[in-house]
Amino acid sequence: MERGKMAELESLETAAEHERILREIESTDTACIGPTLRSVYDGEEHGRFMEKLEARIRNHDREIEKMCNFHYQGFVDSITELLKVRGEAQKLKNQVTDTNRKLQNEGKELIVAMEELKQCRLQQRNISATVDKLTLCLPVLEMYSKLREQMKSKRHYPALKTLEHLEHTYLPQVSHYRFCKIMVDNIPKLREEIKEVSMSDLKDFLESIRKHSDKIGETAMKQAQQQRNLDNIVSQHPRISGGKKSKKEACASSELEVKNTSPMSEQDSGILDVEDEDEDEEVPGAQDLVDFSPVYRCLHIYSVLGARETFENYYRKQRRKQARLVLQPPSNMHETLDGYRKYFNQIVGFFVVEDHILHTTQGLVNRAYIDELWEMALSKTIAALRTHSSYCSDPSLVLDLKNLIVLFADTLQGYGFPVNQLFDMLLEIQDQYSETLLKKWSGVFRNILDSDNYSPIPVTNEDVYKKIVGQFPFQDAELEKQPFPKKFPFSEFVPKVYNQIKEFIYACLKFSEDLHLSSTEVDDMIRKSTNLLLTRTLSNCLQNVIKRKNVGLTELVQIIINTTHLEKSCKFLEEFITNITNVLPETVHTTKLYGTTTFKDARHAAEEEIYTNLNQKIDQFLQLADYDWMAMEPGSKASDYLVDLIGFLRSTFAVFTHLPGKVAQTACMSACKHLSTSLMQLLLEAEVRQLTLGALQQFNLDVEECEQFARSGPVPGFQGDTLQLAFIDLRQLLDLFIQWDWSTYLADYGQPTCKYLRVNPTTALVLLEKMKDTSRKNNVFAQFRKNERDKQKLIDTVAKQLRSLINSHHS
After folding, report:
1. Exocyst complex component EXOC6/Sec15 N-terminal domain: which residues (predicted)?
2. Are 487 and 458 in contact (CB under 8 A)?
């Protein structure tokens, strides 16, 4: 029972739950029905729920059917009324259709007329608008056409102005048209085209002036030369005008107007065609040779385009490159003057163009830029000139180069460029010029000295005499009184050398011209160069002649005479330099000529060479000596070789008549001393181990011949027996042995009044030993003869005493 109640209870709860779910389904939106249905399936009574659900559906269907049955009659009535209205509506439609057809038929003509009126009004409006637009567009098209025409005719600067006007004035008024947009898009291209074309013209101009720089420079240097010639002419006459024009003004005033008759291609190149002018005609101005319009056009165009700085940088960069090319000298420039001239012409041409650009444009180049270029050019030019001028060995070429450098400096100075460094470098080249002159004159002096006959100049008539006196300052009252023919004391090389020294001075003076040096500086330069010529070049040439192997005594004597006269002429050279420089020798710091020292040194060298030569001749004669040192008896006369030697000395000293007295006396004394010394050495030489009294007596005859020669006075001026004293050592030694006066020698030795004061005990001992050995070997039986034994004892005793003297002297 209980189970039955419980089951009944559960079924009631389930039915209530199902009822609640159905109510939720009926009242809940379909989008939220999911959870409700889920609760059905969560339970186990979904079968019952389905039955409940179907029963609920059947109830709702019955209610719908009841409602429809209730309203059905009204619906039928409505349909009936609607069918009646449809008939009336069809009639109304037919009436409207008929009315519309009639209206359409009546309005067709009006519509056509209105359409025609509309088209006319539209055309009229379009024409009016077109005229207005064309009024605005035509000036734009005309300006654009003008622009194209200017571009075609290469009038780029006006074209740029037209383009600017077109862009800022006309195109903004018609900017909404498509062709205007094309024009606007094309404007940058046109500007770029103008820039490129103008830059191309500038490049052609730069290339052309690079090629023609030498022509421009040549013209400028011709102008400077003409102005300098004009200044020289004016300076020789009294000045009328007060001031002096600058070179640049003078150059400008002398320029000729050049007519523009060259072809268009030449105009564009920047160089106008100019005929070569005759020397006596004025040279056209350097600026007249160049058409600078490409530069001006390009500058204006870039200024308008706002790219002036770009243009300036490009122009300066290109000109710097060209400057480096211009300043690079050709490797063979030093070979000819034309090489230097072309180099200078290019540099001058470059800076003439830059100077003109500086003064005709505002800021394209400035003074700082020009100065920088000039500093670079100056340093490179000076370095190149130093290098290439060092190769020049021809003084004429160096002199021509100097004149060209002066003209180069004067030309650029006329354009305002500082050129002091060039003149400083010319002073360096002056040293090199002096060296080349010295080398040249060294050859000249060698030729003069080699071709000279070293004989006094013979004179046969008055004309020849005056000619030589005119060439060399020589005065001799005694010679003038002598009748013709007569002889000058000097040889031909004296006037020749003197004249060549003057020619050298003239050559030095030529270099100093136009260097803006004072008279004192010119005088100092000439004197220093002349001193080098005298002390180095001429001195070396004279020394070489004196030291030649084949030089004879006669030539040496003549050289001494010649240098004596040249030494006397030095004061005339001083006067000559003073006359051409107008600087008195007394002026402070004036350099003195060292010619006197040069000729004295040469003369002394010649004198020494005479002494040496005489001694060599004496030695040659002594080599012919052939003494029989074992002879028992002397000959009847002096040896033949010595007689010949004395004859040679007499003839030689006879030639010394024109030499200064001291020279002849010194030579004679030197020869006698050398002869005496050589004879002593001959007597004492180690190879002569034995000698007899007879040989000594023969030797005594030769010494007497020498003393006779000394007494005869071969050279005047010796007092008393001065010359004989050269043989005093030999004389006392021979007298000691021949007279056998040992007791006197040993007793008086060391006393000032000793008869044999000049006899050295060592020399006497050597000679005594040679006689002692001879006595022993040649007299085998001498020991059996009393006299011979006594003599041998005496020799031994004397030898012992001599050794004692020698030992005491050393101690």
Report:
1. 52-221
2. yes
